Amino acid sequence: MVAAVDEAHRFRSLYEQHQPDVLAYFLRRLDRDDAVDATADVFLTAWRRIGDVPSDTEARPWLFGVARNVLRNQHRTLRRMRRLRAKATTTTGESAPLPETVVVRRERDREVMATLDRLRPQDREILALRLWEEASYDEIAKLMQCSRHAAEQRYGRALRRLRSVSQQSGHGVMSRDRTDLLTEEPTE
Predict the structure, then answer these.
(1) 108-136 burial by CB neighbour count: b if 16+ within 10 A, else e?
(2) Does a structural domain hold residue 80?
(3) pLDDT, position 180
């Protein structure tokens, strides 16, 4: 119990001392919301690996190393999302659709992409993995380094956020008559 209290105190001290610097690092590279999320990711890693965090003057460079990895992961996620967008907009059926069908599909694709852009990167990632890449919850769990149950929960929350953002934007992306792709419930 004493060790847990010491770890909590050490983490609190680490956070209070270095959070402004880590946030500033991300603010120079990302928009505000993404910078705040990325900073949280850094300190989540620090909390999980508190025993690995060097003490004193070495803690700050260690945190910046984690920050660099978080930033690299975010850039990788953005590249994947761009590829998925390109794939979504260039996917065609076996027979040539009517011109009006193409126009409606393109508009729907734009609405879906605009809605996805309003979500957090983590939500976009799990939705892309499940819906576009058709990854199983077990595969998602391995990729996100969490349990299968946590992957299901994260997917369910991301799906609810997507529905909420869609309704708020008035796009109607989530209505059942528009698409059934995004109405899947997290059961497998």
Answers:
(1) eeebbeebbebbebbbbbbbbbbbbeebe
(2) no
(3) 44
What region does 53 belong to: left with phi over 0, alpha with psi -120 to 50, or beta?
beta
Query: Distance between alpha carbon 105 and the CA centroid of its chain, in Å?
Result: 25
* CB neighbours of residue 35 within 10 Å: 20
Count of CB atoms situated within 10 Å of the CB of 104: 13
Would you state the pLDDT for residue 25?
Answer: 92
Query: According to the model, what pLDDT value does residue 133 have?
Result: 73
- Cβ atoms of 121 and 77 closer than 8 Å: yes
Find out whether 6 and 38 touch, Cβ atoms under 8 Å.
no
Q: Is this prediction's pTM over 0.85?
A: no
Contact 155, 186 (CB under 8 A): yes
Q: Which domain holds residue 168?
A: 99-183
Which residues of the chain are modeled with pLDDT < 50? 174-184, 187-188
CATH number at residue 45: 1.10.1740
Query: Does some domain include residue 86?
Result: no
pLDDT for res 40: 95
